[in-house]
Amino acid sequence: IYAEITLLSSKILNDYVNGSVLSTSHNYSYNGYDLMSQEEKDLGYDVILNTYKYPSDYSNSVLLSMVEKNILSPIVEHETLRNGMKIYGMKNQFNTLQYSDEFGGQTIFPKTHRLEWTKDEGYLTNEEILKFDVRGNILEYRKRSGEKNSLIWGYNKLFPIAQISNAEFNQVSYTSFESAEFVNFATSTDG
Q: What average pLDDT does the segment 1-19 reach?
């Protein structure tokens, strides 16, 4: 079986306003099947260039491990330039999590959810992920403000069922979420 994938290489949008036409051209380039760059030109005005980088564009061990496991599509870095000047940037950093369960092994997870670029301060951490469970679900994360938040996962750890604001995961007690799998309630035996 032979399958061919057709990817959009360009398009022109025409907006008709008060009897005049405003044209915007878009050009796309790809790295395999992933969008590598998108250039938008307001004919006669601004040029907006969005570039994207993926695990296969890097050589560090965690990202190479992602490529080996065929985890190819997460965006590692995204930049936006207007007329050659950077106006937006975002980076995701990844780490590996070693765990021991019936499957054994390791999983790859984001270390920081987003590093966002600002003109004055460079890249700033938007959210930092602090704890995961054995499935790679986020249990605790810290926002840029320093506030820690926790998540409780249910339905065989497939869906988040509660988010607790301003609390570390080990500070959360819960019971009776209609499932026997939820127990994080400590009792004291002291009199």
A: 84
DSSP letter at 56 equals: G
Q: How far apart are CA 21 and CA 14, in angstroms?
A: 6
CA 56, CA 69: separation in Å to the nearest integer? Answer: 11
Q: Residue 117: CB partners within 8 Å, gap ≥ 6? A: 79, 86, 88, 89, 90, 123, 124
DSSP string, 125-179: EEEEEEEE-TT--EEEEEETTS-EEEEEEETTTTEEEEEEET--GGG-----SSS
Check: CB of residue 161 under 8 Å from CB of residue 153.
yes
Q: What is the mean pLDDT of residues 112-136?
A: 77
Q: Tell me how far apart the alpha carbons of residues 191 and 185 are, in angstroms, rounded to a whole number.
A: 18
Q: Which residue in this structure is represented by tokens 């926790």?
A: 150
| Closest of 39, 142, 49, 47 to residue 88, by C-alpha | 49
pTM exceeds 0.70 for this model: no
